[in-house]
Each structure stands twice: as C-alpha cells, then as structure tokens.
Amino acid sequence: MPLILITNDDGYFSEGIRALRDTLKPLGRVVVVAPDRNLSGVGHSLTFTMPLRLRKVEEDFYAVIGGTPADCIHLGYHVILEGEKPDLVCAGINEGPNLGEDITYSGTVSGAMEGRILGIPSIAFSAFGREEIMFSEIAKSCRKVVERVLDVGIPEDTYLNVNVPNLSCDEVRGIKLTRQGKRDYKEKVFRYRAPYGETLYWIAAEEFGWCPDEGTDYWAVLNGYISVTPLQLDLTNYGAMKEIKFIEDEG
Ligand SMILES: [Mg+2]
C-alpha cells in the first residue's frame, strides 16, 4: 500500500488539498502536512531562524504553524513519518496555475522540489482557473497522473509540474507532456495611502499572461489538456557553458 505525503502553499484549510487527500485516500495511506496560512509565492524557502510548531488537525492531517511547504515536507518525513520514506510526495492542488517562470515563485512546485531533494518521486498539482474551481473533478484528473507514476515511476532527479484545466474529468482532452512556457509579464505594483500617510505597495498580477507557443504548459491547459512538465534539480545551463568559457581563468 503506497504511502503518500501531501503539502501545499495555500494552507491546510484549502479546498484543493482536501480534494486531493480524499481522492488519493483509496490508493494507500495519505498523510497531509501543510502550512497554517496561505503562503502562495513563498518559493522554496526553508525556515532556519525560528522554531516551528506542529498541530494535529485530524488523523494523518497536520498544520505547521509558521511553516513553509518545504518545512512541511521535512517535518512530515522526519517527524510525522519518523523517517519512513513516502512512495510519493504531492503538493497542491494549488488554487491557480503554476506555469512558465511563475514556477520559480511557487510554494506548490517547491513542495515537490523538496520531496525530490529528499529522494522521493514528487508531483506538484495546480488548477488552471481562478474562480469556481472544480476541485473534486480536478482531483480525479490528478489521481490518473498519480496512478501512472506509482505504477511506472519517474527518473531520479526528476519531479513533475502538473497543471489541470478547470474541467470535469470527462471533459479533459488527455495528458500532454510539455515544456516550461514563458510568462508575458503583467505584474503591477498598486499604491495605497495608509491612514497615517505612509505609502504602501501591493504586487499583484492583473491577469493571466503567457505566450501560447505549442508544446508549452500554457498551450496544453488552454487547449483542455492536463499539462505534465518534467523538472530537474540541476539548474545548470549546459548549453551556455561553451559560450561562457571565456570567464575561466587559470591564474
Ligand atoms: Mg498557492
């Protein structure tokens, strides 16, 4: 019976994490360890400068007070599971997509990255939608991916970034293996005047904006497919090594 560890960056109370937990539960033992608050955009942050607290919400369901998704995977593995290695780490289902360069900010994708660093096959799941997200339907699509990964496995040092269109499981057109797309940046800084005169700033995306090149993560979800992008821990740009050879200095 597989052991599956789940986290997210939206917080333990989110609809997406419960839908994923409920849908995966028939497959094996599913343990949830998630932040106590919404930490979307926290990336791969690990907490070194303060202690963390664990709270049991229900059986096999924990919140980490002040913990990031990466912290949650650590505490889940080392404390809750007492070092028993999960067969799979899942992060999500995130409320909103994680496409293109946005994955570098994503706590959801970083939860899966942390699982991979600990040597565990890992998958990040995100919903391609902002409103009226059909989490229970999306969770069924996620389960299909999970079942295939548990059956066949994924290469070492690889983790998967999965985005699911906001469609019923039957309406989804299939699963596409994709490459990371490109963001068409539309972030804005909003300014506010505080009651005592100070100017405050709020960074927010105005709307979705990605280049719709065929074969990318964005193209797949836009066209009704589940997007599966294989990611790796090694960020080295091997293609650039020859061009940047000039930087070397033998002294
Ligand atoms: Mg989020």
From TrEMBL:
Pfam families: SurE. Residues 4-187 form the Survival protein SurE-like phosphatase/nucleotidase domain. InterPro entries: SurE, SurE-like_Pase/nucleotidase, SurE-like_sf. A divalent metal cation binds at residues 9-10, 40, 94. Its main location: cytoplasm. Signal peptide: none annotated. Keywords: Cytoplasm, Hydrolase, Metal-binding, Nucleotide-binding. It catalyses: a ribonucleoside 5'-phosphate + H2O = a ribonucleoside + phosphate. The keyword 4Fe-4S does not apply. It is found in: Cytoplasm. It is an enzyme of class 3 (hydrolase). GO terms for cellular component: cytoplasm. The keyword Metal-binding applies. PANTHER family: 5'-NUCLEOTIDASE SURE, 5'_3'-NUCLEOTIDASE SURE. Nucleotidase that shows phosphatase activity on nucleoside 5'-monophosphates. This is 5'-nucleotidase SurE. The lineage of its organism: Bacteria, Pseudomonadati, Aquificota, Aquificia, Aquificales. The gene is surE.
